[in-house]
Design goal:
Residues 15-127 form the Acyl-CoA dehydrogenase/oxidase N-terminal domain. Pfam families: Acyl-CoA_dh_1, Acyl-CoA_dh_N. Belongs to the acyl-CoA dehydrogenase family. It comes from Mycolicibacterium septicum. Residues 235-378 form the Acyl-CoA dehydrogenase/oxidase C-terminal domain. With 393 residues, the protein is α+β, with helices and mostly antiparallel strands. It is built from eleven helices and eleven strands. It has helices at residues 16-32, 35-41, 50-58, 78-90, 97-110, 115-126, 231-267, 279-308, 313-338, 350-360, 367-392, and strands at residues 131-134, 137-138, 141-142, 149-154, 157-168, 175-182, 185-192, 198-202, 212-226, 269-270, 273-274. Strands 1, 4, 5, 6, 7, 8 and 9 form a seven-stranded mixed beta sheet that branches. A two-stranded antiparallel ribbon has the order 2-3. Helix 5 (97-110) runs antiparallel to helix 6 and helix 7 (231-267) packs parallel to helix 9 (313-338). The chain starts with 15 loop residues before the first helix and ends with a helix.
Length: 393
Amino acid sequence: MADTDQIPTEQFAFTPEQQELRTAVRGFCAEYSDEATVRQLMESKPAFDQKAWTRLGSELGVLGLGVPEELDGSGGGLVDAAIVVEELGAALFCGPVFGTLALSIPALVAAPDTAVRTETLGALVAGTRTAAFAVAEQAGRFAADAVTVQAIGSGETWTLSGTTERVVDADSADILIVTATGPDGVALFVVDATGPGVQRNVLSTMDLTRPQATVQFVDAPALLLAGPDQAPQICQHALHVGSVLLAAEQVGGAQHLLDLSVSYAKERLQFGRPIGSFQAVKHRIADMLVEQEHSRSAAYHGAWALQDNSDDPTLAASIAQATCSAAFTRIATDTVQVHGGIGFTWEHQAHLYFKRAFTDAALLGSAEEHRDRIAEYVLDAVTSDYEVTVATG
């Protein structure tokens, strides 16, 4: 019989502690991620405040949510991490949330218990170092045949050579989690991003708050994190977690835009009346609300399912991404429309969220790709059930 603490409850609801966590992170964002700070940081090198990032880890302890306490984490679970990422997304927080919190830390937690994992994970949880996830994937699915980095060596001595394209947060990362093909297959390595043999070419991207870089390795020293027998499972687990946390971030950004649109519709006057009193604007905002509530449910279903093993992780992650990507881009577009001419200007914050929405929608697979995966999964399940029924007659 499973431990009762691990049995999913019949109805999902946030606990008082989780509500307090949300309040604490929202207060942190008000101090460190107001619009003026975001605009300043996105033009900076690096594009985040190391002091604020360290505070997230050392003082608030939110970088260790989902990391067991015996690994110097904060305990908790994926739902707690999703709450944090949602609030950071609502504030358009500039920092390596995607590369470090959403992908690299989950990969390290799932990796074998070695000194490499312990040392690397401890620094990331504390917020003293940052990471990027240079792992081959296609639409959020680990792709071993797309690995373009070669590993040479054995035991503890390895060097990597090759190139990984479009790595989010790699521009200023201290650590790179890298997949490379060795003599026995694709393995997972830890590389010092500031060490010899590593060159990072920062890319020009639409969303300046989320930097990307192409990383080139030339005989770069590397430490083995997991061998070919475990690396694919670890990478896929991290990509599932990353997809769900990315969905939570999309929920946060969409909620901010919805609140912004409602406020503007109440204040903006046209023909002597608030524009929110006109049917066309009312219906648009109502549709935005429905989209937002749907996406919130999908995101937290994904976090809950992965945390409690209550649903297939591939299906839960794809549902979250398909729903939240579509909702965020739709709400971002509608926000610009509600705001009229001012919504198109550089001075208004709507364009910052618009760019984040469409950038996020391209990370870990588009909504269309995840819908295809959901259909494939469901049709396979139906076919399998039919074959069993026919066989047992």
